[in-house]
Specification:
The protein is α+β, with helices and mostly antiparallel strands and about 170 residues long. It folds into two domains: about 35 residues; about 110 residues, no CATH class. The protein is built from three helices and eight strands. The protein is elongated.
Length: about 170
């Protein structure tokens, strides 16, 4: 004799999985913008960590003209400083050495954050600053500066707390 103990539970689990899959498929069909945001001429690309999106961000950099430059700003109290410029306009002087980051680079190896088109990280003695060009909701861009800190004793480091620099425009 065949025992059907547990057969009802398995049937219910399979039925729920099928219903969830059908519901997700129906949502994807009726809301295509959720799967692929519309891109139109003039809208900046949002950078992520995939290689394909990295090349899209690079194309956006060229399209809107993002060009970083660095100049040694000397030392103050034994701390080296670097002058950071964006498209020829000085953004500021930051501690340590500075480098432009890509979609998979940077101090934490995570690349650009959500909405960031291009960025520079300046770092010295466990902390620093990140200067980024971010896409805004109006289709334009904003320059923002955030902080960087390395992890201490197994804890998580920090990266963020970005503030808009209204005095710097592209």
């Amino acid at each position: 004799m065949i025992s059907s103990k547990g057969f009802g539970l398995i049937t219910v689990v399979i039925a729920v999985a099928i219903i969830v899959a059908l519901g997700g498929g129906a949502y994807a069909v009726t809301h295509p913008e959720a799967m692929h945001p519309p891109m139109h001429e003039g809208s900046p690309a949002v950078a992520t960590t995939s290689a394909e999106d990295a090349s899209a961000a690079a194309a956006a950099d060229a399209k809107i003209g993002i060009h970083w430059s660095f100049k040694d700003a000397g030392e103050k109290e034994n701390i080296p400083y670097t002058e950071v410029s964006l498209n020829g306009k000085v953004v500021g002087e930051y501690q340590g050495s500075c480098a432009e980051i890509g979609a998979s680079g940077g101090i934490d190896g995570k690349g650009l954050v959500a909405g960031e088109l291009s960025a520079v990280q300046c770092y010295f003695a466990g902390a620093g600053d990140e200067i980024g060009v971010f896409a805004n909701e109006d289709g334009g861009t904003e320059v923002m500066v955030g902080s960087l800190e390395e992890p201490i004793e197994g804890g998580a480091g920090s990266r963020g707390d970005f503030k808009i620099r209204t005095d710097v425009k592209l």
